[in-house]
Amino acid sequence: MWLRNRQGTEPVTARSPLGARRALSLVALVVAVIAAVFFVVRAMSTGQAVWGWEAAIAGAVAVVAAADLAVLRRRRERGR
């Protein structure tokens, strides 16, 4: 078994950080989508361009978080 032939100083009971990464990506996705919607509504009501840029940034964060979740799902499915 590969675990018994390990090299380095990693403990035998080490856990993968993918669970924490998944949780952080989920939180980032939810917060970014809520923020993007808020900023879009704010931009439409005030007419100020700064809110549109804020919405674009929040949307980009949401896209990155969604892509990270897709990568994690693919890794999990490939590992089985």
Task: Give a description of the structure.
- Pfam families: DUF6343.
- The chain crosses the membrane at residues 23-44, 50-72.
- InterPro entries: DUF6343.
- The chain is mostly helical and 80 residues long.
- It has one domain.
- It has helices at residues 18-46, 49-79.
- The chain is elongated.
List keywords for this structure.
80 residues; mainly alpha; 2 helices; elongated; transmembrane; transmembrane helix; DUF6343
Layout of strands and helices, then pairs:
Elements: H1 18-46, H2 49-79
Helix pairs in contact: 1-2
Transmembrane segments: 23-44, 50-72
Pfam family, one: DUF6343
Keywords: Membrane, Transmembrane, Transmembrane helix
Task: Summarize it.
The chain has helices at residues 18-46, 49-79.
Strand and helix order: HH
**Helix content bin:** over 70%
Assess the beta-strand content as a share of residues. Answer: under 5%
The number of distinct structural domains comes to: 1
| Beta strand count | 0
The largest pleated sheet is described as: none
- Helix run count: 2
Q: What would you call the structural class?
A: mainly alpha
- Rounded to an integer, what's the Rg over CA atoms? 19 Å
Shape: elongated
Question: Could you report the average pLDDT, rounded to the nearest whole number?
Answer: 89
Q: pLDDT below 50 for ≥5 consecutive residues: which ranges?
A: none
From the N-terminal CA to the C-terminal CA, the straight-line distance is 17 Å
Keywords: Membrane, Transmembrane, Transmembrane helix
Pfam families: DUF6343
Transmembrane segments: 23-44, 50-72
InterPro entries: DUF6343 (IPR045924)
